[in-house]
Amino acid sequence: MKSIPNNPASTCSPFARNGGIQPSAAAERQNAAQTPPSEAVPVGLRSSGRPKAGRTSITKRVKTTLATALLTGLTTVLYAAPPTITARVEPDSIGIGDRFDVVIDVDRDLVQVVEFPTFNPPPQSGLEVVESHPVDTLRRDGRHLSLRKRYTLAAFEEGNLGLGRAQVLYLDKNITDTLYTADTLRLQVGTFQIDSTSHTIYDIKAQRTLPFRYGEISGYVLWSLLGLIVLGGAIYAGRRLMARYARKVRDIFRPAPPLPPHIAAIQALETLHNQKLWQSGRHKQYYSGLTDILRTYLADRYGFGAMEMTSDEILAAVRRYDLPQKCVMDLQAILRDADLVKFAKARPEGTTNEDNYLNAYYFVEETKVAEAEEETEEQEPAKN
Question: How would you classify the pairing of strands 99-109 and 144-155?
């Protein structure tokens, strides 16, 4: 970066004579034109007017000096000094395979921008980047800023390694430059020295065959016998318990036996009656449920497919069994009213609906399987 020189004589070197700045011919003509008539000098006495031209030259010299100083100050403000960069290796001597840090410190102005490098060492260099730490701000003093970048690397080649000069990219307005450190970074990598003179290297020894000893497996044998005894005792106790409580255990997992047809039908009829379907105007749902309950009961009780039969087919099948005539007539009335409701959209009266429910209930009660009552005689204990 070049600075403007402070010496005004250097900027006006084409006109410098005898170590000073002299006025030009144009300046003399201008001064003669501005001289009033009363002060006009004869031609023969013009040589006496030179001191006045000398005063004009001194004034211009002062102005030039002030302008140069002002430009130099502006240049110093506008173009700040470039950042300074220092780098070091911590530690500078390691063993092979160990890690070390490369630390780069940059002092820069607040408006300047620096970019730290990215390490990509080639495989043959014996270096490996372990971690690139983030940039850390060490100090901020007004416009002055101190930054630090740390890289952790590992070395796998012995010797005195030269890492080169650390560098950063520098950006400032129209300036783009790469800054380097003054010295080259070096690292001393040592290795382990094998003393082959005092230590002899032997071959691998052959495998030895040792005699068998019972003490080596005595623990395994004892624990195995103890495990067999415990297992046998558990099996014996389990068999005794199963023989005593097997029936109770099986009853826990045994599914409940199905209900007799008449009990299932009675429970279904009570559930249907509690729903109060016909009271809410749903006559079709009421008679559909009533006839389905009777069909299911007849299929389970007598064993014919009442669910797939029409009303006339059901009545013809029922007449083959020895049923009371009243039961057959009640079943016929229920089926007839149900057909009228389902197919003719009839709406029977409330008394008719209740009568059909009661007739279905008594039909099931009258046709259920007769339960044989076994009488047991109580024996009185013998008296001594």
Answer: antiparallel
Contacts of 192 (CB under 8 A, 6+ apart): 95, 96
Q: What is the 3-state secondary structure (H, E, C) of 110-153?
A: CCCEEECCCCCCCHHHCEEEEEECCCEEEEEECCEEEEEEEEEE
- As to burial, measured by CB atoms within 10 angstroms (0-12 exposed, 13-18 middle, 19+ buried), residue 363 is buried
Nearest Cα neighbor of 98 from 70, 139, 78, 126 is 126
On the 0-12 / 13-18 / 19+ scale of CB atoms within 10 A, 294 is buried
Contact by Cβ (8 Å): 337, 362: no
334's tokens:
């229920």
Tokens of 241: 């318990």
Task: State the amino acid at position 159 in one-letter form.
Answer: G
36-93 pLDDT tens trace: 444 443 333 343 444 444 556 677 776 777 767 666 555 544 556 788 899 999 998 9
- Classify strands 20-21 and 136-141 as parallel, antiparallel or unpaired: unpaired
Quick: pLDDT tens for 228-267. 999 999 999 988 887 777 666 666 667 777 888 888 989 9
Distance, CA of 196 to CA of 312 (rounded, Å): 115
Tell me the whole-structure pTM to 2 decimals: 0.36
**Four-CA torsion 51, 57, 62, 68, nearest 10 degrees:** -170
Phi, psi (5° rounding) for residue 334?
A: -65, -45
Tokens found for residue 371: 């339960």
